[in-house]
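TOKENISE THE FOLD
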Amino acid sequence: MSMENNGISRRSLLAGLGAGGALLLAACSSAVDEAGSGASAGPTPKAGGTLKVAIPDDLIPKNLFTNSNTAITALIGLVYESLTRYPNDSIEPKPRLAKSWTASADGLSLTLQLRDDVVFHSGRAFTSKDVEFSIKAYADASWHAQGQLQSTAKAVTSVDTTDPHQAVLHFAHPLGNIFDLLDTVFIIDSETVEDIKTGKGFVGTGPFTFKSWTPNSSLVFEKNPKYWQPGRPYLDGVRIGIVPDTNAIAAQLKSGQVDFAEGVSPRDIEELSKDAKKFNKTTLAGAEQQIYVGTNVTAPALGDVRLRQAIAYAIDRDRIISEVFRGNGYATNLPWPKYSVAYDAEKNKRYAYNQAKAKELVAQIGTLPTIPYTYNTALPVYAATAQIVQANLAAVGIKVELEPVDAATFVKQLIGAEFKGIWTTFHSWAQYTPSTLVVSAYPFNALHNASHFTSDDYTSASQAAWKQPDGRSDAAIAEYAKVSDELLEALFLVEIGVIPFQWVSSTRLSGLSYTKRWELDVTNAYLA
């Protein structure tokens, strides 16, 4: 029987968002109970077997903290764990390696009570010193590519580790998104950290241990016999094949060579899921990403906001959602998904499809240069989106030249703000506390972003939102409204739409799950 996880209502999520006072109380939910959040239902679990997976991206060890490709998100989901974890349908934190917590009244500290039954894959006990080390490592850009919540990690000024089973975090100022950080930063082993940089080894506390990596070929993981959740995982291991050709990935799934695949095109997912006896479709509701067009405001002509407005009016968002993503998603002018406390339906009508308005703005500007348009070749949806945008812009007098690049090059240009003109990709983090997006994400970070955009007003609004003690309060929501206004006025990023990613798997696989960062979770998965 076909399965689809896409049932998050605005009411259910806002119910979770409204529990601001819960942050001041000790968490009472069992981490074991929460481990299966988002998992698909199935028959009685059967232990054993190796899950075979196909993904399009190879591992880039130095980018481990970036969540920037399918190899990284799969590895993190299998090997590592975070202190807390959001359910897929809310941003109300639940226990993981931290079993409970208490926030100070002034919002300047958070005391975490840690599990005392957790060991690393090496056999060493997990303690508060590992919390301190992992947060400091995430904040330190000198040994890894920039993590997108680095600013929040840096605002953790100290960690009291006097008690090995209690970590007290002290902040430079209130952090309305502190649980975004605790959900994101995975606990790493200080004794083997150098192995991460080379890809030699990855030691965590998660359900699977890292066995091997063969570049451009495979990643192999084995069951963690010391895992703290009794009876988990069910699988003996996971073998991931690196298959750059997304058509080949779909073919492997069809032929039964693999039971789970990432990177399958929306059209192939649509076709495969019609055969409900063989394939399941999982929609990653609550872990949406947004497709957009970014602009380098220092590039010729793009410094004129009228040109950026023309681009925004010219893009046929509904066509892209319909044709490229097979109707999976919805058009938007702002980054926030509909369930976010920052979402505003009226503001999302600001740049409705209007080619006449776009032509009028282009005529005001005058002669334009040909603009380089970069996209990532890793997924067919990028090329398909870029081709529609190129045609839309040509129709209003804006000529762009497509510049496809490989995944590693694209990520390097994104992090390094090296794009020569405009670009298209997905961004994430809008499914979290809204302030995280504007103080953290590469495209949006008010202090340093891929567009080279700077604005005192945008920075002020972003910082004010971030420093609210409760990121879900009325005061925080008022600041998010200011952020949205700044984004619409400056328009250094042109949003296209909100897209819930989709995965496809064989019906042999049950218990498949994911995190809000679209990391693979097969803790409760098993093969029929």
Remarks:
- The longest strand covers residues 208-214.
